[in-house]
Amino acid sequence: MKVLGIETSCDETAASVVDGEAVLSSIVSSQEVHGKYGGIVPELAAREQLTAIRPVVRAALAEAGVEIAAIEGLAVTSGPGLAGSLAVGVAFAKSLALASGKPLVGVNHLEGHLFSVFIERPDFPMPAVVLIASGGHTALFSVAEKGKAVLLGQTVDDAAGEAFDKGARLLGLPYPGGPSIQKAAEKGNPKAVEFPRPMLKAENLEFSFAGLKTALAVFLQKHPEAAKERRADLAAAYQEAIVETLVEKSLSAAERVGARTVAVAGGVAANRRLRELLSLRAERKGLSVQIPALPYCTDNAAMIAFTGAFYLQLGKVSGPELEATPNLPLFSFAGV
Ligand SMILES: Nc1ncnc2c1ncn2[C@@H]1O[C@H](COP(=O)(O)OP(=O)(O)OP(=O)(O)O)[C@@H](O)[C@H]1O
Ligand SMILES: [Mg+2]
Question: What is the per-residue DSSP string for 188-229?
Fold first, then answer.
């Protein structure tokens, strides 16, 4: 089934055509405008979505070599996300569906991230534990099969990506914080400073990253010169604390539910140290590891098309009442 997916939940405009297991195209246009503000400005994000949506959808169809007439269904992110950004994608997809007579399904952005682990390797050993670690969410799921996920635990405060972004700002590193902390950490010693591993000893599968950010802020208050002079060490130690917490919690979740695979999705899954440490520690426990290629970790529309195709094949179609839902319950998808 050939499905066109559209994703506009935040500051990326993305479109993709998938055909069964194959990704025929995946175009992502990232907004540059927010860098100078140190974070996303919602009004600007929505305006940029408006100018990017048509060329991005056209480019996805052209790269796939598919006319809209040959598309069998459409999928669009309906939430959660920024109201203005989401509204652009949903309105565009609804108009296209109406004009072309194709069925349309609304997709939960988080379920898109969850499905992204299946894109390149649909047949990894099940059951799996999937960690979503992104800019706005950090949550662990037990996944028995595609479309059947049970929430095991999530963050009680900041998301892992948010911890990277806030930490980078404290260290005077550019937005987005994840890639810049990763880069600064390359030359640093992760053992130079001992930061807390939040909730690591807790029995539950919840996360908390607000205290870690405070620990960095307090350290910098005591040693104001360190933000410059010891930036690489601080970046490495801070990154290590986030990564080790994510890895250890995921492995204990896997043990608890008897998973055969540990998978990670979302922007933070792009982190090199996370990929390395998870592979190392999971291997020791005889667990298979599944982390998508970098373009499928951060926001993309292939994951939305992929999820949409799954539901369209089950006969699920959204009617004209589909609306952008910024506060769509995080885990309002099937089986959760
Ligand atoms: N190499 C990296 N290391 C660590 N973090 C990273 C890396 N690359 C990106 N990130 C982080 O990933 C986040 C963006 O991920 P993503 O695009 O999945 O989130 P989002 O769509 O903004 O949030 P959500 O999916 O929760 O709505 C940012 O916080 C960014 O700092
Ligand atoms: Mg995302």
Answer: S-TTSS----TTTT-SSS-B--HHHHHHHHHHHHH-TTHHHH
